[in-house]
Design goal:
3 domains; six-stranded mixed sheet; Metallo-beta-lactamase, Chain A; 24 strands; single chain; Oxidized Rhodanese, domain 1; alpha/beta; about 30% helix
């Protein structure tokens, strides 16, 4: 038996390759599926089933394309409805893969179709639970994504409580837990950095599995402090229910090298966003006017989904050379398929053409310290929890996730400073603000990590509201 976790850090997502006696099951695959096909071919094995723990909101899964390529059957839990052929399993339905079995455990709560998959070894012993977004390490799935009609997040949280107590917690302590996500995912509040655990460990450490916890306590704790989900979540759910284009076709139509002339022409004649994905240190030194920075080396895809509201938005890319296809793939993982092309030769070709360029002001924390003494305005674009933990005393909390809701708070004429934890998110924020006419924005290099090495006055506070 082979169990391999294929973890994608950009999405904080785990897909799983399971093989036994020449038969393969894939759980929660990424949209680009060729690696699974190749792995099975190398092992002289056949992909038999594609299990989906639920309709994912934070990424476009690869179930449709993988089924087309391999003939494997797609399996969803009870109550799922799809626009493509799939097995809608019954609770406790068993699927045989080689000499092991995978049992469907219907665990509604995160969504109503959510299911965990219990793998039993050749001797019939419970071995591993693929827990999807029902159970994370240190947390459980948020219960506010599948609210419909009179069904509230509290109702869903109640279902989740029952699912965990009736289906998950009775399992033996040594059963391995393979979750769908780790730290950094927006599908939970406080996920662990670890990506593999056990039922016993979670009973000891996960607040939501606390012994003698009442349903009322569970509902209150699970729903408390939930931030609004990113705008692209329901759009990804729709794609995962209805189907989508093959990623190979997306790459063919999107990976178009554009000359400076053609790039500029398309930018002027369409409503395309110019998305610059180079490192923030390069972006600061020079970029095409009106560009938005979201660096490929950071939490790229989720930030694109959070900040670009429409997955149909036309996009023109400025990438590091050689990263064009990779950028298009990462965009497609969250459903952004409308890339019109990329600047051939990257930003260097724009510079050589002697076209207008823009730059971003950035200062050290030492300069910031001096400016604070002169009553500078400082804005902190970290998450509310980070701000609550500790922040510059005079700083205002304007989280990047909700920057649009805070636009009116930034001054139009007076210089102001933005910082995050290390310098990635603040450059994203500054690029968006500058594109909207705030040419008085100044980035703080090194972010709060560098601030800690100064005498700038800091304080902790109650977590602020994200929706002022």
């Amino acid at each position: 038996m082979i169990i391999e976790q294929i973890y994608t850090g950009c999405l904080a997502q785990g897909a799983y390759y399971i093989e036994s006696k020449g038969e393969v099951a894939i759980i929660d695959p990424l949209r680009e599926v060729q690696d699974y096909v190749d792995k099975a071919a190398i092992n002289n094995a056949k992909i038999k089933y594609i299990f989906e723990t639920h309709f994912h909101a934070d990424f476009v899964s690869g179930h449709v394309t993988l089924a087309e390529k391999t003939g494997a059957a797609i399996v969803f839990g009870p109550s799922a409805k799809t626009n493509f052929e799939a097995i809608i399993a019954e609770d406790d339905q068993v699927f045989k893969v080689g000499d092991i079995t995978i049992t469907v455990l219907h665990t509604p709560g995160h969504t109503m179709e959510s299911s965990c998959f219990l793998l039993k070894d050749k001797d019939g012993k419970d071995h591993a639970l693929f827990s999807g977004d029902t159970l994370f390490l240190g947390d459980v799935g948020r219960p506010d994504l599948a609210q419909k009609g009179e069904l509230t997040e509290k109702d869903l949280a109640g279902f989740l409580f029952d699912s965990l107590r009736n289906k998950v917690m009775p399992l033996a302590d040594e059963v391995i837990v393979y979750p769908a996500h780790g730290a950094g995912s927006a599908c939970g509040k406080n996920l662990s950095k670890e990506t593999i655990g056990t039922i016993g460990n979670q009973k000891e450490t996960n607040y939501a599995l606390r012994a003698n916890m009442t349903k009322e306590e569970f509902v209150k704790e699970v729903t408390d402090g939930l931030l609004p989900p990113p705008a692209y979540f329901p759009l990804n759910v729709k794609l995962n229910k209805e189907g989508y284009k093959n990623i190979d076709d997306i790459i063919k139509t999107s990976a178009k090298p554009l000359s400076v002339k053609d790039f500029e022409l398309i930018a002027n004649e369409t409503d395309a966003i110019i998305l610059d994905v180079r490192h923030q240190s390069e972006f600061i030194k020079g970029f095409i006017p009106q560009s938005i920075f979201i660096g490929i080396d950071g939490g790229f895809a989720p930030w694109v989904g959070a900040l670009i509201k429409d997955i149909q938005q036309p996009i023109l890319l400025v990438t590091p050379q050689g990263k064009e296809a990779d950028t298009i793939i990462r965009l497609s993982r969250v459903g952004f398929d409308n890339v019109l092309g990329y600047l051939d030769g990257s930003f260097a070709s724009w510079q050589k053409s002697e076209k207008e360029i823009d730059t971003l002001s950035s200062v050290s924390v030492e300069v910031l310290e001096q400016k604070i003494n002169e009553n500078a305005l400082v804005f902190d674009v970290r998450k509310p929890g980070e701000f609550a933990s500790e922040h510059i005393k005079i700083a205002e909390s304007t989280p990047l996730d909700f920057l649009n809701k805070h636009i009116s708070e930034f001054p139009k004429k007076e210089e102001f400073y933005v910082h995050c934890a290390g310098g990635y998110r603040s450059v994203i924020a500054a690029s968006i603000l500058k594109a909207r006419g705030f040419h008085n924005v100044i980035d703080v290099a090194g972010g709060y990590a560098a601030v800690r090495n100064t005498t700038i006055e800091r304080t902790a506070a109650v977590c602020p509201s994200t929706l002022k």
